[in-house]
Design a protein that fits this description.
This protein has two domains: 2-14 and 254-377, Aspartate Aminotransferase, domain 1, CATH 3.90.1150.10; 22-253, Type I PLP-dependent aspartate aminotransferase-like (Major domain) (Aspartate Aminotransferase, domain 2, 3-Layer(aba) Sandwich). It is 39% helix and 14% strand. The protein is built from 13 helices and 14 strands. It starts with a helix and ends in a 5-residue tail after the last helix.
Amino acid sequence: MAVSVAPAAKLSVPLLDLKAQYASIRDEVREALDRVIESQHFILGPEVEAFEAEFASYCQCRFGVGVSSGTDALLAALMAIDLRPGDEVITTPFSFFATAGAIARLGGRPVFADIDASTFNIDPDGIEAKITPRTKAIIPVHLFGQMADMVRIAEIAAGRGLGIIEDAAQAAGADRGGRRAGSIGDLGCFSFYPSKNLGGFGDGGMVTTNDPALADRLRLLRSHGWRTKYRSELLGGNFRLDAIQAAVLRVKLKHLDEWTERRRRNAALYRELQPAAISLPAEIPQCRHIYNQFVIRSSRRDALIEHLSARGIGTEVYYPLPLHRQRAYAETPTAPRELLTASDLARTVLSLPIHPYLTDAQLDHVIETVRESVTPYKR
């Protein structure tokens, strides 16, 4: 019986394979890079403007404003709505640090509402109870590539006169009911960090909007408040997207839907794990989940990680400590019985490889390895 297991044990399955992706588009990328290098125009300029228009159209938005990272996209968006010290912003405790960090950096107060255990996204039922006279906006996060319930969140925000900033860092191309991530709120924030479905060759980000006044303000904010060089109209920063990143992202954007469908196909195959003693991610009807991550849940997560690692399978925990338990937010009060879902998920979630260059043999290896690990512990 050891004979059948040994070959599979030697098969490596990385969590992400950017080398395989690059090999498939190498010539296109090099041509784009040469174009920028020959132009010697590296900051903003025609390449960035072209990518802004193409990505905004992809997101069903009128405007896109390229910035230096997903974190800076959130920061610029909050500056654009004039977040002031003491203002409160309701968001999820189960996200990357930047979601709440951008609020706190401007002197605002992150207010955490719990999440839905099946989608990992903020639960609209918990938002209204968190609204106070100091509430300025809501930041829903489209976590792991599936959109939050924007219809209900938009209704809540409209009824209270609140802004909405969509944290769509992991959701380029996701949609719900035919509407794309980043097109529903006042502003949408995207990250082009290399690990994202649409990732650059370094840091980069975008803010989308349908409001021309917000788009204009964002362009000022990302470049020292300048409309005319050396003339600052407002206090901004240096949040500019560079032309090399834009050129690479323009190439990758052409392939994004193809890569997304491969991710969705891989996710469908992973659903063969349903009988195992793990919980699989929910895919909400009328949603196009783009699977930036394929996140399972297991009460024996740490043992499962060890088992998968021993067989050459890469995994990651997103996220091991919810934001309300981070030391940086020690002054943000949380009742003992609040945010229990986020705390429970942090103890049980695990991401499996889902990238578009997984082979059938690699997928089979992951599925069988998970099965053999959890079979003794079925409930």
